Amino acid sequence: MNVARDAIFERLSAHRRDVERTPLRRMFADDPHRFARMSLKLDDLLFDYSKTRTTPETISLLVELARACDLEGRRDAMFSGAKINTTEGRAVLHTALRAAEDARILVDGQDVMPEVLAERRKAAQFAEAVRSGALMGATGERFCDIVNIGIGGSDLGPAMAATALTPYTQAGLRGHFVSNVDGAHITDTLRRLDPARTLVLVASKTFTTLETMANAHAARGWLVGALGEAAVGAHFAAISTNVEAVEAFGMSEDRMFRFWDWVGGRYSIWSVIGLSLTILIGAQNFQAFLDGGREVDEHFRDAPLDRNIPALMGLLGVWHRNVWGFGTHAVLPYDQRLARFPAYLQQLDMESNGKRVTLDGAPVERATGPIVWGEPGTNGQHAFYQLLHQGADVVPADILMAALPHENVGDQHAMLLANALAQGEAFMKGRTTEEAAAQLKGAGKSPGQAEELAPHKTFPGDRPTCAIAYRTLDPRTLGRLIALYEHKVFTQGVIWGINSFDQWGVELGKELASRLIPVMKREAGAEELDSSTRGLVDHLLALQGQ
Ligand code: F6P
């Protein structure tokens, strides 16, 4: 129990009742400097939170809350290599993976940086050799298809980033990402590929994950079927913390890329899990990606909390989740190549903060991580924005936009940005019933018709959004964006007093699946199962038998 924290939550609730009296459009009208006061810049990257229902007092209270929860102390503990992942007894050091070459970071008294740098160099050399054609397949052909087999953090990061950084991909190289244990995924991926020109990267922190191992064996079979057993060494590489399991898979030392247990799966894109991305975009661009992450680390460590972008992102999330009771958070990139960013953030946020007990195992006293979801704009506008504008639930959202596109297609970038800005404005301002009626009358409706239709055309407004605007989606910016959200999630975990770095909630389903596999393979009976699961098993097996 944190008495100081609870007292500030009380004050925040009282403060909400004050804030609620003033609509956002009024706040803007009353304060011409609202945007200047409520936006922050990190070089070209602008974070605008002026369209949230906050005042300077809200921010001071939220900063007080952060202090009462020792956000700064917890942050420093994370960066220093303390074992803050207490349920697994591990340090949390994805920040070391993007740290400067001269950094010294100790875990159990050992500086981890020499190993980090050695592995980074090994991956860079391997990637460059693939890109230049110095490293070829067993038949002497250049690799042109890079297949990453992994799931969760061993898939979402590289898959999302490869799409985001498409313009930086070397011509002639294509990335493919296979994750699902559904055989359709590997089948549809490999069907289009030539084994002689395919490099397969098996990415798994534990190297035991069912999906990844099954797909890796399927890919091995496909390759051996075409090129023979002797070709495996030339066409496979492994990325893992589990050296023994990689060796058992038959991979040689030079084809093994390592990382460490202090890198959480969902934080591993910065490690050699980024090898597929490094091959696609090159070591120099991957370094720029790491540099972007490091810039945000420095900002998170050095900026005062009321001018600290990730800390404010986290605190505003707490304001929305706990004080207003909003249950979900939407991520709306007006940047098509960030199409997988919401899915990436789902794992980052929901696997980190989807927790119901505090660090000491007591039930949490208030709601924790929201449901995170989203789709790129403008597509979402024609799908779910109806609910965002007029639905019964309020969904706080982040709107992401780049000033410069990579390609100019007519005026389309101007159209894209105009839409992003218009949505933020509409969420904030809404449209009153009087305005709707006036507009209807102006369009020729009778007063009666206008009155009847006006409620349907009313927008409540006051729907909070934050905007993140940057020059262009380059490797450095992608690194900055990911690190911003990582530290946002960290900030929220500290306020809620939970462990953001374990994921026990994925275990039960895995355990039950391992009991059900023999049942579905007809090697074990279904007698022990509950009647629903047994009924489903019987139905599926009967259909298979027909
Ligand atoms: O979904 C649970 C999880 O452990 C994630 O945290 C992780 O990213 C994913 O599975 C994949 O695990 P691995 O990299 O060990 O195969």
UniProtKB/TrEMBL annotation:
Pfam families: PGI. Its main location: cytoplasm. CDD domains: SIS_PGI_1, SIS_PGI_2. GO terms for molecular function: carbohydrate derivative binding; glucose-6-phosphate isomerase activity; monosaccharide binding. The active site is at residues 351, 382, 510. It comes from the Bacteria. One of its GO terms (cellular component) is cytosol. InterPro entries: G6P_Isomerase, G6P_Isomerase_C, Phosphoglucose_isomerase_CS, SIS_dom_sf, SIS_PGI_1, SIS_PGI_2. It is found in: Cytoplasm. HAMAP family: G6P_isomerase. Belongs to the GPI family. This is Glucose-6-phosphate isomerase. It comes from Hansschlegelia beijingensis. The gene is pgi.
